[in-house]
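Hi team, as promised in this morning's meeting, here are the two structures we talked about. I've kept the exact order from the run log so nobody has to guess. The first one is mostly here for context; it's the second one we should focus on when we meet again. Sequence first, then the predicted structure tokens.
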Amino acid sequence: DEEYIESREIRHVRKVWKESGGDPTATLKAMPSPGRGGGVGAGGAMMARERAVLKGLKRYGKDNALMAIRCLQHGVRMFWINAYQSYVWNLAVTERIRRLGTEVAIGDLYVQNRKDDVFCGDNDGEGGGGSRKKDVCIVSKENISDVDISQVVLPLPGYDVQYPSNEIGKFYEDILLRDNVSFCKDTVAEATAKGTYRDIVAFAKDLEWEKVKDGGENSKHGEEEMQQSDIVDTFKIRFELGSGSYATMMLRELMTTTLARYH
């Protein structure tokens, strides 16, 4: 079983679901008891959401999938939509950098009248007194020289956002078409979202690092010194990122850049 990510019990449940033609009663009977054989790892607790949906299908019928999904907590249902939005955004920003680089391009979206360092419009279009959806504009031939890459944003897909007017807008369209997904205002909450925007570039503030020597002695350095220093085996790093940015991504980029530079 080492070659599988899921346990034998979980794989058995999926097999019963498939072979029974999606029979919720048979599948529920095949599910391991919560915590049996070692708790979460055995699959009982891990399949709590599947169990809830199957009970919903059993209660409301296989033709009423929406009511079955509503047996889950609201936050869980919305999490799945938010996860898909983030997935599409990650694909789009990767493609944006790959195709157009790190310079501002005509057709990009940018935030004008930015009130803080991070665009913070949430899924309701407002956010913490900061920049809002109405501040998002399209880069044109006339204003491109006034826009910095730090102002450029990309949308998390939804029915209340605009998309870039360059080739990245078409990329969004192709992804949503491929996945057969559309975000409509007049539909159930479990199947749509307003959408919002995220900056495509984040900047670390107050960057400091300490070289850790063999004896445990530390030596602090600023950003300029860091760029000039030799390779070190061990160091401690401190920095500050805006809301919605991940330190793990900052470290990944830092270490990837370092490896690429010397290897």
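And here is the second protein, the one for discussion:
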Amino acid sequence: MADDEELAALAAAHGLSARGAAATRPPFSYLHAFFRAMSEPFDPADRPDGYINLAVAQNFLTVDAVQKRLLAGFASPQPASTAAYDNMKGSERLRTAMAAHMHRVLAKGDYRVKISADQLCISAGCGAILDNLFMCITEPGDAVLIPAPYYPAFDNDLRVRNGAVAVPVCGDDAVSLPTPTQLDEAVEKARADGRAVKAILLTNPSNPLGVIYGEESLLDAIIWALANDMHVVVDEVYASSVFGTTSVDERGEPVNPFVSVMVSETNLAAYEESAKTRLHVVYGLSKDFCASGYRIGVLRTRNEGVLRAMDNVAYFCTLPGPMQHAVADMLEDERWVDEFLAENARNLRAQHGALTAALADAGIPVVNAVAGMFAWIDLRAWMRESTWEEENRLWTRAFERAKVVMTPGRDCRHGVPGCFRLCFATVTMEALTTAVGRLKEMLAEQ
């Protein structure tokens, strides 16, 4: 109630709509720490006591290579059409190049998978894709189930313009997807609160855990949703950021454990028609290509109604023509793409190895990640009691005493206080190990 009164006062003072006033709320609780860390960043020579921000899901490890290749794309001859209006879902060339890339890299060339340019909408980032997609499939106040813990900005992505409500659903443990029974219970609770559940939003590989969910458990969740006439949105933005493995093939070679839902959908014969309408895939270049600032987000859907709606709303977030030309040129260079992704995986593996070694030295438990750029650490042993207030005290002490910015588990809607997300690909290895050293000293004082 107090929050509603504050927003009403803000709207009155500044002539804002209720929607505009609600948009002034920060997307997550630790936004102030971002700005402080940006103003006083760690530098081993000039500011050794500066802040180290490990709360940004961004990859700078291989950025020079992608910048160089994109520059070559801009330098290649561009048709006059790049300066004109084009298909608001993306140029034919870019959508064709992206469809080929998604089939070859995400679907691993599986002949059963059909991905065409006509199924794609390419917009200015995955945030814009999610915003427009949920505008199409939800009404204000509708609920969207999300397995927890999850990416902390999802709540804002759903709420800020569309008024949809994220409903976290925990599995048996942090790294397990919820079972159909647990999903049923979440639906009943949402309905008791007066909300219709319209969709489930899955992320694989996981942010914030860095794990890859097994195909069987993913299919269980997808089939459950389709059987209940819900939309299924699968975020695969970390699909090519796999740096570890959990198995080997008959030759002893490591097996990439990631299976795209675009491959899994070929096993949904009993729900084929429903999947065509209700199964949507979100992808982008922000993470796999160290390119958050390029703002390349992709929706793959076979729902013709959604695609027609995107013809309209994508106008507000379409990409500049020269950028589309350069990105298409880059994706068409398959040899370069393969070499880049392999180099980036090596860099992620090295960075993750340095972080986990430092965490082990500090005695800090961490989830065994194989993808993405995350370490999910468990600091419950250093808490005085199992409360969210105590988690916040520990986070605040890390920020103020150790000058390390972490993502609180509460923002990821984790079910148990005391876990935190560390993002390891946006800082140098020296900054990373320095941050863990500071946390070790801070925890020793607890």
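Starting points for discussion:
The CA atoms of residues 210 and 369 lie 5 Å apart.
The first helix runs from residue 2 to 14.
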